[in-house]
Amino acid sequence: MAAQAANACANELKNKVLEYIITLGWRNGNALAWKKPFIQKALAKTDASLRTFLPKKVHQKPAAYACRVYQPASPLTGFRVRMTLLPKSVNGNQQLTHARSRKSLPQRTNFNPKAHMINMKSVNAEKIPLPEPLCSLIGGVERGAVTNFYGPPGVGKTNICILAALECIKNGGQVVYIDTEGGLSPERVMQISGDEASLEKIMVIEPKTFEEQGVAVKNLEGRDFGMLILDSAVALYRLKCAEPDKEALEANKELSVQLSILSNTARKRNIPVIITAHTFRNWDTGENQIIGGDAIRYWSKSIIFVEHTGRMSERKATVIKHRSIPEGKFVKFELVGDGIKPAGFRIF
Predict the structure, then answer these.
(1) 168: closest CA among 142, 195, 136, 133?
(2) Residue 315 domain-assigned?
(3) Is the pTM value of this prediction over 0.70?
(4) Which of 4, 74, 92, 134 is deepest in the core (most CB within 10 A)?
């Protein structure tokens, strides 16, 4: 019994020392590996009686005890450090490893805040206009931000994307249109624009899987365009989550990465980015909620909910989130041959 108690005490002390080493290494900014100076510094500050419980390899080859710090899936939860000491040994050496995540943090780089400072007056705040009544609702599509139109099928989300794309083309820009559902119709584009010239200014990408969607989003660097549209951002994501052998956590992480790239692209190029999304019925509250959860709500700086009103061709657009417009503001419009128009009073 005395021997077991002594071993338990020794293991507890050993874990405390190793935890101290890990904490010290993280505070010194060593996010990827605990190098020799950090461990030597930790050993120098620990009591000599405690150091006797450390493996000899820590004294001789500290570099062999490389560890990694990982990033969680949600950008809202911040960074977490959770390291554990495995009881098993590999080739005779104790190994330190992370308990849950897989993706490691990037190495630290020299970041100069002054190089990224800008004067807000120099930022092009001009919006891409939209036809009435959407122009009265939000004033147009903002540059440097992600605008999200979401709603059930057939409410006109793709029509709004086409209208915004044509306005960008009128201003001399080109549009990258990532069509994940096959909903973009060249005939509808020509019907609204009145000519075929606009089709040459729209670069269409048609991914068939969520992985291909990620490749398309991550390989936008080097392309010249003035607007980016992802219609829809969650169609292939839903299929990925529906696979029985796949974890929803991985799909959520990938969706967050894609949305962050879109947001960074909008800010870096000062261009408007439009995404569309679907809804699902929350049976507890009876409300239609956006698919994509917190990630899509976080990265979308403007969120507009589009829905049927019950009247033929009439739709209602409501501001759910905006940086300068109060929530709950709404307008009604009708889908017509050349786009949309304000809904008027009708007698049936």
Answers:
(1) 142
(2) yes
(3) no
(4) 134
